Amino acid sequence: MTAPAEPRQAATVLLLRDGEPGLEVYLLRRTRGMPFAGGMTAYPGGGVDPRDGDIETAWFGPPPAQWATAFGCDERTARELVCAAVRETFEEAGVLLAGDPEGGRVVPDVSGDDWEDQRQALLSRELSLAELLAGRGLALRSDLLRPFAHWITPPVEPRRYDTKFFAAALPVGQEARHVSGEADEASWLTPTAALAELATGDRPMMPPTTHTLGQLAPFPDVAAALAGSPPEPLHPISPTFEETPDGRWAVLPDGTRIRLVIPLPH
C-alpha cells in the first residue's frame, strides 16, 4: 500500500458564446499520447505555475480573497488559480481575459504575430502572465470569470488534480483559435450536442466534463449561464468508481452515476 498522490492545483475554463443553436462551449479533444486524459474531450486548462502567484500581476475585479471564499482555499492559492485560468485560456485557445486596468474595454483582438510570439513565450515559460500584462499596460480581468465547479481526482488515481472550474464569456472581438499543442481537435458545441456525441461513444470525456456540460445544458444563453453559476462556496466533488455488468461508472457524493467511456484507438 502506498499513500495517495497529493493533488496538484489546476484551473479549467468553460469558455462560452451565444451561437446559432444557442449556448455553446469551447471543447478540445486531447491527443491520445497525453499522459492524462489522452483522447478525451475537455475544456482549456492546466496546472498552476509557480509564477501564477506573482503579486505584481495587474488585477481588476473580485480580489483573491473573494475567490478564496468561493473555492475554500487561501488567498495565495486563489490568486494562482485565477491567473492560471487566464493564462491557460490564452495558451490553449488564444483568448485573453484582460483589459483596461480601470475596468474599461477588454482587449478586443489578440491574434496578431506579436501576440502569438508572446503566447509561445508563455508556453515555454520564458514569459510570465504578469510580465505579458505589464508590457502591454493591461490587467487581468477577474470580473470576466465566474466560479463554476470544484473537482478532486479520487485517491485511487496515480495522477491527481484539485481542479477549480471557471466560466467565462468569449470577449467581444476575440476568436478562439485551435492553437493548443495538446489537442487534435477544437470545437464550439452546445452542451446537449456534446453529450449526445458522448452517448454514442464518439466523444469520450472525463466525469467532470460530463457533469459540468449537464449543468450548462439548461441555460439558453451566456448571460443566463454566468448568472446561474452555483452558490458559493463550492463543495468539492471526488467520485468513487463502480463496476457493474453494464459498464464502469463514476459515482458522485449525491448518488449521481456517470458512465465511463474509454477512447477507442484510431
TrEMBL record:
GO terms for molecular function: hydrolase activity, acting on acid anhydrides, in phosphorus-containing anhydrides; metal ion binding. Residues 6-211 form the Nudix hydrolase domain. Its cofactor is Mn(2+); Mg(2+). The keyword NAD does not apply. The keyword Manganese applies. Keywords: Hydrolase, Magnesium, Manganese, Metal-binding. This is Nudix hydrolase domain-containing protein. It comes from Blastococcus mobilis.
